[in-house]
Write a structure and sequence with these properties.
about 40% helix; alpha+beta
Length: about 170
């Protein structure tokens, strides 16, 4: 790569997207719809290198054209065949697992010391058990313990992945 092309490529990296789009218009003779800076830099750099050091050889062009002609390219998606009752198909269904990632899995035990008292809460599939009573939310448990509204995740120091803070 010549020094001049190297400098031009370095300048590309410092340009704004608007400037790169203008440079693309100059290099290719047509506007681009892209607003992705890295893509524009790479595309324009390729063009600058091709202009500065020469494009593909005629032999390489012929070979690329030959490969393209031999390629079995599909331009449209395959048609879906109607079910005639003779074909075998497999269907899959997604099973929704409705689990908040902030809450530990059912069966987990949450503990916390609050006002010289050990708080133990068991995570159930549909709620939280504290002292024999099941609550719908951790906030409900925290309110039963403190008498005031608390964010249950904060009260039990749970992070985004349901793991207690150390």
């Amino acid at each position: 790569m010549t020094m001049n092309v190297g400098r031009q490529i370095a300048q590309l990296r410092r340009m704004t997207v608007t400037q790169l789009r203008q440079k693309h218009l100059e290099a290719f003779g047509e506007p681009t719809r892209s607003g992705h800076k890295d893509y524009l830099v790479k595309r324009i750099a390729w063009r600058l290198q091709a202009q500065g050091e020469g494009d593909l050889s005629e032999r390489a062009r012929r070979r690329a054209e030959q490969l393209a002609n031999d390629a079995d390219l599909r331009t449209t998606a395959p048609k879906v065949k109607p079910d005639d009752g003779h074909s075998s198909t497999t269907t899959t269904a997604a099973v929704a697992f409705d689990h908040d990632p902030r809450v530990p899995l059912p069966g987990s035990i949450l503990t916390r010391r609050y006002k010289d008292r050990d708080i133990v809460v068991k995570v159930r599939p549909k709620g939280f058990e504290f002292e024999g009573e099941v609550y719908r939310s951790l906030s409900g448990v925290a309110k039963a313990i403190t008498g005031t509204h608390w964010n249950g995740f904060h009260f039990f120091s749970l992070r985004q992945n349901g793991v207690p803070d150390e």
